[in-house]
Amino acid sequence: MKVLVAVKRVIDYNVKVRVKPDNTGVDLSNVKMAMNPFCEIAVEEAVRLKEKGVATEIVAVTIGPKVSQEQLRTALALGADRAIQVETDEDVQSLDAAKMLKAVVDKEEPNLVIMGKQSIDTDNNQTGQMLAQLAGMPQGTFASEVEVEGEKVKVTREIDGGLMTVSLNLPAVVTTDLRLNEPRYASLPNIMKAKKKPLETVSPADLGVDVAPRLKTLKVEEPQPRQPGIKVESVEELVDKLKNEAKVI
Amino acid sequence: MSTLVIADHNKGELAGSTLSVIAAAKAIGGDIDVLVAGKDIGGVAEQAAKADGVNKVLAADNDAYGHDLAENLSLLIAEIGKGYSHLMASAGSVGKDTMPRVAAMLDVAQVSDIMGVQSEDTFVRPIYAGNAIATVQSSDSVKVITVRTTSFDPVAAEGGSASVESVDSAHDAGLSEFVSEELAESDRPDLAAADVVISGGRGMQNGDNFKMLESVADVLGAAIGASRAAVDAGFVPNDMQVGQTGKIVAPNLYIAVGISGAIQHLAGMGDSKFIVAINKDEDAPIFQVADYGLVADLFDAVPQLEEELKKVV
């Protein structure tokens, strides 16, 4: 079966985020960028399905500016067979991203789409579900276990209060949660090999999608800082303050 | 202008999160109706009808909605939602799963995880794990919204007298099936709704040591959480995770034990009213957000804390 994996270029997980002084957004100039952590988990899951002999081909796709080819090369180095870049410099919001991915799904006809549950920049947690709806597919969101069984996929999902297992007709969309797997690192030989793997570039217009943001960001600000607290010397002092000063116990 | 609130419920009880979503809907203005969908939800609908500020409760009692499958629920919400200007759910696992499908069906954007309402079309939400706060304006005719419930004080659970109407439509998309559920059995309060939360981090060293936190939680009636580091290390299950990718909590008292305070963790508990940090590293970033910080070895401090608390609680 064919697996499509969507990946996104985002600010590196470890970088301290700084809001631009003019409050128009977050400063991304000269900041280290990387593949979204949940997308790494998605790529890993696809590669494991291929290693198990369940998946036969892995196609990685991204939407973004030319430099986001770096993240596609990473996916190729981790084990994807080929890659598709939807190249755009526009601010692509979840609904438009889902429409572009739907167009790629129509063309590639994957049996399974795996993607991250959310990107760590906009924290929207929308695109996988939107793609599933547009493509008429079921969805297994926040997955901690994925098992393909014939024409169905069994997905264990992280829900409030525990776990829930669903059985989905294929083709389906799965979005990854943290415990699904632990992504591997790309080896140097595989990084070299990835440079020769096919990478196709298309435009949103090729896919018949107009980038049309529905949400306008009016301003971006730093969060309100907390008032600095105090250090206490002992557990007795702590409990006394909680009881008599904060009055929370 | 009118809002349809999608209710959360659990074991036949209306979830407190719904009262916060109603509060967010009130901040927008207009009539507020509540949709309760599920199997045997008559009691939940009655509870929703008593909530302050509710105009009408729509009860969709059907097997197809029994396990909150997004494929079925989204069809119902899109159908019932016709004619409303705002469709709102909590940013819990059901709302996060279902609402984007509704938005895609209606060809509108979704505004996720709002923490403030500025006007009927302008909302405040966290981005970059809460390290930046964005004010966004929607140009869509229907606003599909999920709500960070800890940011809105719940409306009163009693006092209202809305009518309850039953909804007959049964949507089974036939795409997905429920197989099983494993819910943590616990007498403790729900993590996302607890007044007191005590969380452990990598400093706990192993899962067994979380028993120390349980003893303190028993004294305080607290819920127990964990940092992502503790989850990644396999000490405790993921549903205990507090942070950007886990639960967002805002209790009256949050006690962080052996947690260094990575930004992803602070994103999940930074709105707590009082924060206590116990950590042996005096430079740990958690102390920058803690109201009371105690630099100590947690293996000494936590048992002492239990003893001292027993004297006063």
UniProtKB/TrEMBL annotation, chain A:
Organism: Halovibrio salipaludis
Protein name per UniProt: Electron transfer flavoprotein subunit beta
Cofactors (names): AMP
Entry-linked Pfam families: ETF (PF01012)
One GO process term, biological-process aspect: carboxylic acid catabolic process
Keyword annotations from UniProtKB, A to Z: Electron transport, Transport
Annotated GO MF terms: electron transfer activity
SUPFAM superfamilies named among the record's database cross-references: Adenine nucleotide alpha hydrolases-like (SSF52402)
Residue intervals of the Electron transfer flavoprotein alpha/beta-subunit N-terminal domain: 23-211
Subunit structure: Heterodimer of an alpha and a beta subunit.
Family: Belongs to the ETF beta-subunit/FixA family.
Keyword Zinc: no
Nuclease keyword on record: no
From TrEMBL, chain B:
GO molecular function: electron transfer activity; flavin adenine dinucleotide binding
Residues binding FAD: 202, 227-228, 241-245, 258-265, 279
Species assigned in the record: Halovibrio salipaludis
Keyword Nucleotide-binding: no
UniProt entry tagged with the keyword Cytoplasm: no
Protein name: Electron transfer flavoprotein subunit alpha
Keywords: Electron transport, FAD, Flavoprotein, Transport
Gene Ontology biological process terms from the UniProt entry: fatty acid beta-oxidation using acyl-CoA dehydrogenase
Domain Electron transfer flavoprotein alpha/beta-subunit N-terminal: 3-182
Gene3D superfamilies: HUPs, TPP-binding domain
